[in-house]
Amino acid sequence: MSALLALVLLAAESFAIDYGQVFRDHADDIMVAEPGVLHLELPGPVILERRGKRFHAEDQSGWGPAGCAIDRLFVAGAAVTACPDMFSPEQRDRVASQLIRGVQFFALNTVPQMSETAATEAMLGELARRRDRLSLLCVPGEPELAFAAHIAEDQSIARFGKIFAAPRLPVLEPCR
C-alpha cells in the first residue's frame, strides 16, 4: 500500500467519534430509557442514544450540528483547492480559514481529542479524498463552486462563528 493511500485511509478514520468511549467517560450520567437503550445528555446540548452496538447522536444546540458544518466546509475546501482560479484570493483565504476553524473545533471536541498534527494530516487527506470524489470540471455553474463562494460570504462566516462558539461533541445529526 502506498504511503499516500495509507494517509487517505487514516484520514477517513480520523474524523470519527468514539461513542463507546463517550459512554465510558460519562458512565455516571447514563440514563436507561428502556431496557437495552442507554441515554446520555451532554453539554451543547447533544443527546446520545445507544442500542446495543448502534449509536445515535443528535445536536440540539439550535445552530446545527458542528460535524455537519465541518462536512460542508470540506466540500467547499475541496472545490476551492480543485478550482483555485475560479475564486478570488480573499475567497480562497476565507474558505480555508473556516475549514481550519472547523477542523480545530472537531479536534478539540471529539472523543478522543486529536492532536494538532493529526488534525492537519487528517484534513489534508480528507481534502484530497473529497477533491477526487467531486471530479469538478472547474466551469461556472458547478453547484459546488457556487457553494464554496457562498461559504466565503460574511453571513456564512458569521453563521459558522455561531456554530463553533459553544464547545460540544461534533456530531452529524440532524444534517439539513
Q: Explain this structure to me?
A:
The chain is α+β, with helices and mostly antiparallel strands and 176 residues long. The protein has a domain at 66-163. It has seven helices and four strands. Strands 1-2-3-4 form a four-stranded antiparallel sheet, with no helix packed on it. Helix 1 (3-14) crosses helix 5 (116-134) and helix 3 crosses helix 6. The radius of gyration is 17 Å and the shape is elongated. The model is unreliable at 1-12 (pLDDT under 50).
Proportion of β residues? Answer: 5-15%
| Helix content, binned percent | 40-55%
Q: Overall 3D geometry?
A: elongated
Total beta-strand segments: 4
What order do the SSEs take from the amino end to the carboxyl end, as H and E?
A: HHEEEEHHHHH
- Total helical segments: 7
Termini separation: 37 Å
Physical arrangement of strands within the biggest beta sheet: 1-2-3-4
Rounded to an integer, what's the Rg over CA atoms?
17 Å
Structural class: alpha+beta
Mean pLDDT: 90
What are the segments in which pLDDT stays under 50 over at least 5 consecutive residues?
A: 1-12
Query: Can you summarize the main beta sheet?
Result: 4 strands, antiparallel
Topology:
Layout: H1 3-14, H2 19-25, E1 31-34, E2 37-42, E3 46-51, E4 54-59, H3 66-82, H4 89-109, H5 116-134, H6 143-151, H7 154-163
Antiparallel strand pairs: 1-2, 2-3, 3-4
Helix pairs in contact: 1-5, 3-4, 3-5, 3-6, 4-5
